[in-house]
Design a protein that fits this description.
The chain is α/β, with parallel strands linked by helices. The protein folds into two domains: about 5-95 and about 285-300, Rossmann fold (3-Layer(aba) Sandwich); about 100-275, 3-Layer(aba) Sandwich (Rossmann fold). It has twelve helices and twelve strands. Strands 8-7-6-9-10-11-12 form a seven-stranded parallel beta sheet. Helix 8 (about 190-195) packs parallel to helix 9 (about 215-220). Bound molecules: NADP nicotinamide-adenine-dinucleotide phosphate and 2-keto-D-gluconic acid. NADP nicotinamide-adenine-dinucleotide phosphate binds near residues 75, 175, 204 and 281.
Length: about 325
Amino acid sequence: MTDIIMTGPLMAYAADQLKARFTVHELWKAEDRAALLKEIGGKVRGVAGGGAHVRIDGALFDALPKLEVVANFGVGYDSVDAKEAGKRGLIVTNTPDVLTDEVADLALGLLLATVRQLPQVDRYLRAGKWLEKAYPLTTSLRTRKVGIVGLGRIGKAVAQRIEAFGLPVSYHGRTRQADVPYRYYPSLVEMAADVDTLISVAPGGASTHHMINADVLKALGPNGIVINVGRGTVIDEQALIEALKNKVILSAGLDVFEDEPRVPAELIAMDHVVLLPHVGSASVHTREQMGQLLVDNLVSWFDGKGPLTPVAETPWKKA
Ligand code: NAP
Ligand code: 8YV
C-alpha cells in the first residue's frame, strides 16, 4: 500500500477510509516527529493535511523526497506553502464548494447574533434577569449597509443571503467580479466609509495580512460591525481590540483569530462581541463532505486519474 502522512487528526469518517486504502502515519501522535520522519519519510508519497495547526512547507517537503501530493482538509490552505509545492512539482488540493453554503449560513447567524446580541440575551435570561426587567433594546439589521471583503465562492453565497434580508451589498477584492449586481470598491477604506457592516470572507496569507486595519475600522465608524469568517490574519487583531475598547466601532462577531486556538483575553473579557471557535464548516454533514473530497483527491491521484480540486498554485494538466 502507498504510504501517506496525516499531519493532524481527521474525523473517523475520512481517517477510516484513508486507513483502508493507504498505510497511514499519524505524524501529530509521534513524540519525536523528526525521528518518525527520518524513519518513514523516504517512502511517503502523500500528505493528508489539516486539523492540528501544523505548517506544511519546504521543511516537511525536504523530509519527504518521494512526496507527490498534499490534500488539505479545508478550502483555505494558508497553512500549506503551495507556492513552494508548485516549484517542486507537487500537487496541493483543497475542499472548495462543499462547505460554501454552510459557512455562508454561519456568517449570517453570526451577523444576527452580533447585531441582536443573541448570546448576551441568552445569558441574561439564564441569569434570571428577565424576572427583574426586559433586556435593553439592541441595534438592528434594518438600515444596515453591508460590505463584503472577498467576494469569492463563500462571499457570493453570503451576498445572496444578505440580499434576501433586504440589505444593500457592496464588495472589495483585488478584481471586479463578472456578473454580480453589487457595487465594487477597489479601495477597502473607501468601502468601509460607505457601509456600516463589514463581512470578511477573504483567505489568509501574506496578500491579505492585516488588510482590515486601524484606518479601515476608523472609516467604518461608531455604528460599525465587523464579522470575520475568513481568516483571523486578515484583521489586525490588536487594532480591532483598541477600536472596540475606544468605541471606534460598535461590535464584532468573529469565527477566526490570528493565533488559533488562542483568543486574546481582552476579547474574551468584552461583553459586546460574539466569539466562535472556528466553526464555520463544523456540521457533521459538511465535514463529511470535506473529508470525502480529501479522500477522493488522494485516491484519484494514486489511481493515476489526477487531482479533483488542485489549488491555483499547483495547476494540473492531463497528459
Ligand atoms: P475563494 O472562492 O477563493 O474566494 C476568495 C475571495 O477572496 C476571492 O473573491 C478573491 O478575490 C478574494 N481575495 C483573495 N486575495 C485577496 C486580496 N489580497 N485582497 C482582497 N481580496 C482577495 O474562496 P472561498 O471558497 O470563498 O473561501 C474563502 C476563505 O474562507 C477561505 O480561504 C478560508 O480562509 C475561509 N473559510 C473559513 C471557514 C470557517 O470555518 N470560518 C470555512 C471555510 C473557508 P480576488 O481574487 O478578486 O481578489
Ligand atoms: C475548516 C476552514 O474548519 O475550509 C476552511 O478553510 O477554515 C474550515 O472549513 C478548517 O480548515 C479545518 O481545520
